[in-house]
Amino acid sequence: MLNSLLKRLRQLSRRIYVRVTLFAVFAVVAVLLSKLIAPLIPFDLKGRVGAEAVDTILNILATSMLTVTTFSLTIMLNALISAANLWTPRSHLILREDTVTQSVLANFLGAYLFSLIGIIMRHAGLFDEREIVVLFFMSLLVVGMVVVSLIRWIVHLEGLGSLTFTAAQIEAEVARAVTRAADLPCHGAHALDDAQAQIPQSAWPLRADRCGYLQQIFQAALQDAAEAADFRVYVVTEVGQYLLHGEPLVYVDCAETLSEEAEQRLRKCLPLSELRSFEEDPAFGARVLAEVAVKALSPGINDPGTAIDILNRMARVLSSARVGAMEEPQYPRIWARRLDPETLFEAGFDPIARCAGEDLDVHRTLQVALRQVCFAARDPRVAEAARACAGRALDRAALDIRYPPDLEKVRAASEPGRP
After folding, report:
1. What is the Cα gyration radius of the chain?
2. Coil/strand/helix, residue 335
3. What is the rounded distance in angstroms from the CA atom of residue 50 to the CA atom of residue 55?
4. 348, burial (CB in 10 Å: exposed 0-12, middle 13-18, buried 19+)
5. Would you say 342 and 318 are in contact if contact means Cβ atoms under 8 Å apart?
6. Where are its TM segments located (predicted)?
7. CA distance between the termini of the chain
8. Per-residue pLDDT for 418 more than 80?
9. pLDDT(240) > 90
10. What does the pLDDT read at residue 6?
């Protein structure tokens, strides 16, 4: 249960409103702390720091931080729109969770609320001379935080929304998803390879109560729920699969009918949403990465260099994929499907091969990238999927490239031992 709670908190912390709210709360607490710390201030300091100095700092922060926050929000929104229009509409799912942007905006808004509350309490006469000293030093800390945030923001704006930054962010998300799948194959459960043979006849289907994608599986919470109600769960739905209302989500094998509370607890462990998530869905990340290359290969843009860069990024990520199963499942009451390596290559490489057209460089780079995956893959099933993808890409190239000598160059790139 603790693992699922930490997992939910980690995902929640990547939402911008959470960080902004936390920093705003910290700003309020900082102002109130000045009244608690005031008794510790020596009496000889209270005459050295005047109220005018504190009022000036607070007024500057209040007037400037609201403007800076509004301007920064505009920049972030323009970057999201630009990346969605230029690269892929799904890029906003990652850029909106950029930690630097969130921290900077939260610092700016926190500084504004700190100064605003400080001004209100000052004019209300709630601070004595020693409390004003504490408020002065806290204001200096806030000013230092604002200066650091401004520098970070200026440096960060050099790449925000650009192709390199967006592609790197997507690649990082795909790499994290692939690593999670490799470290916890089958989501830490038993492998569900043959549903008809492995699922007992007594098991009954828990059907989707609405349409949506299966975003992820909270395995620890699902295991706890299964132990509490004494049942076994067979997850027949893959993460990222779209379900219609009424389709089987999982099969539950239990001696007695589940209570409504246990059923709702089970559904919370298998959230459905209108949007897919990168968290446990590496195929979705590979597809989004491929969308950048496909957009670059469109006739209106015609940028094969971007497609070549994406192919290299894809090879770097997928070479570390593993699709096995655990010898001793971490969650013994759960059965789940293995990650299919074919879906990774179909989502990542096949769209690029279809859109490469007569571009020899893209076809050749695709074959080289797949050959590299074959040699570097940690899992033989991943290498086999890469070979199958290379064969499909060669068939596609044979249709797109008109001249046999050029096709031979592409074919040579896929042969082992050839440079």
Report:
1. 28
2. strand
3. 9
4. buried
5. no
6. 16-37, 57-83, 104-126, 132-155
7. 51
8. no
9. yes
10. 65
pLDDT at res. 126:
74
**How confident is the model over 359-388, as a mean pLDDT?**
92
Tokens found for residue 357: 């057209």
CA distance 332 to 315: 34
Q: Is the dihedral of CA 301, 303, 307, 313 positive or negative?
A: negative
Q: Specify whether the CB–CB gap between 134 and 37 falls below 8 A.
A: yes
Average confidence (pLDDT) over 251-256: 88
- Please tell me the distance from the alpha carbon of residue 346 to that of residue 161, in angstroms, as a whole number: 27
What CA–CA distance (Å, rounded) separates 253 from 258? Answer: 10
Torsions phi, psi for 251 (to 5 deg): -115, 135
Q: Which residues of 138-151 are buried (b: 16+ CB within 10 A; e: fewer)?
A: bbeebeebbeebee
* Rounded-to-integer distance, Cα 145 and Cα 126, Å: 25
b (16+ CB within 10 A) / e for 106-123? bbbbbbbbbbbbbbebbe
Pairing of strands 272-273, 204-207: unpaired
How confident is the prediction for the chain on average, in pLDDT?
86
pLDDT at 360 over 50: yes
**Contact (Cβ atoms closer than 8 angstroms) between residue 190 and residue 336:** yes
Q: What pTM did the predictor assign?
A: 0.85
Contact 250, 333 (CB under 8 A): no
* φ/ψ of residue 169, rounded to 5: -65, -45
Supply 54's token pair.
């504190």
Measured CA to CA in angstroms, residue 132 lies from 120, 124, 210 at distances of 13, 13, 57
DSSP structure string for 201-254: TT-EEEE-SS-EEE----HHHHHHHHHHHTEEEEE-SPTT-EE-TTSEEEEEEE
All residues at 6 or more sequence positions from 309 whose CB lies less than 8 Å from its CB, including other chains: 167
Compute CA distances 112 → 23, 31, 54, 229, whole Å: 11, 12, 15, 50
pLDDT at 351: 95
Q: What pLDDT sits at residue 255?
A: 79
pLDDT of residue 321: 86
294 Cβ neighbours under 8 A, 6+ residues apart: 307, 351, 352, 355
How far is Cα 223 from Cα 100, in angstroms, rounded to an integer?
A: 35
